[in-house]
Amino acid sequence: MSLDTPNAFADEENILLHTALFKQVSPAEAEELLPHLHRASFDKGEYIFSEGATDHRMYLLERGRVKLIRTSADNRVQLLSIHASGEVLGEIPVFDPNGGPRTASAVAMSNGTHVAWLERDALFAWLDEHPRVAIDMLQVMANRQRANNERISDLVFMDVPARLAKTLLNLGSRFGEPVEEGLKVPHDLTQEELAQLVGSSRETVNKALMDFSNRGWIARDGRSIVIFQPGMLIRRSRR
Q: Which GO molecular-function terms appear in the entry (predicted)?
C-alpha cells in the first residue's frame, strides 16, 4: 500500500459524485466531505482491509477491481463478490451500531488500485447536516441486500450451469468489452475463484464451461471469456 497526497484527485473530480451511495448528492454537498477523504493505492494481492478488523472506515473504489473474500477456520478461502470503480466497500461496520468486526477481506485484483476512505465520525457529522442523503444511502444498501438475497436463492434453487450462465452475464454486463466475435469478459479470475463465485467446485464449473463452449455459446481465452450467444446464456440461466 502507498498513501497518496491527501485529497489530491485525478482530473480534480470529486470521486463521491461517481459512487452509488452519493449519486444524489449535489456537488456543493459533496465538496464538504473532501477535507475528510484519505486516499491510498494498492498493488495486486494487497489487502485493503481484513476480515475481523474493527476500524470504522467506508471505502470508495476509485480505480481498479477489488474482490471480497472470507477465510474459514481451516484456511479455506471463499470469493464473495467483485467490485469495480465507483462502488462502495466496507460499509457494514460503519453503519453497524456495534462498529464491527469486518465480515470479509478486500483484496486488490490489479496493480494501481486506488481507493479513498471516510472515517465514520466524519461521515455521520456530515449526515447530520444533510439527513436526506441518508435515505438515498438506505435505498442503495437495500438494493445490495436484495442482490445478496437473490444470490442465496440462486444457490438453493438453480443448478450449477444456470448459476454459471447468470454469473457470466453479470460479469459481461459489468466488465465486458465488445469485440468482433462478441463480448469479451476479462474476469482475471483463476478457475478456483470463478468456481467460488458460482458457488460450486472447480470440476463442476469447468464441465459446465466446456459444455457452453461445445455448444458455441462462449470461448475461453486465458482469464477471459468471449460470449458469442448471450441469448442462450440468458435462456439457460432461467431453466
A: DNA binding; DNA-binding transcription factor activity
So what's the pLDDT on residue 77? 85
Burial level of 61, CB count in 10 A (0-12/13-18/19+)? buried
Cα separation values, 3 from 29, 35, 71, 115, Å: 25, 16, 27, 10
The C-alpha cell of 46 is what?
A: 494487497
Check residue 27 and give its pLDDT: 84
CATH architecture of 15-155: Sandwich (2.60)
Q: What is the pTM of this model?
A: 0.83
44 pLDDT band, cuts 50/70/90, is very high
For the segment(s) 158-237, the CATH number from 3.20.20.100, 1.10.10.10, 1.10.4200.10, 1.10.1200.10 is 1.10.10.10
Place of cell 464491527: 100
Which of 55-64, 95-104, 164-173 shows the lowest per-residue confidence on average (mean pLDDT)? 95-104
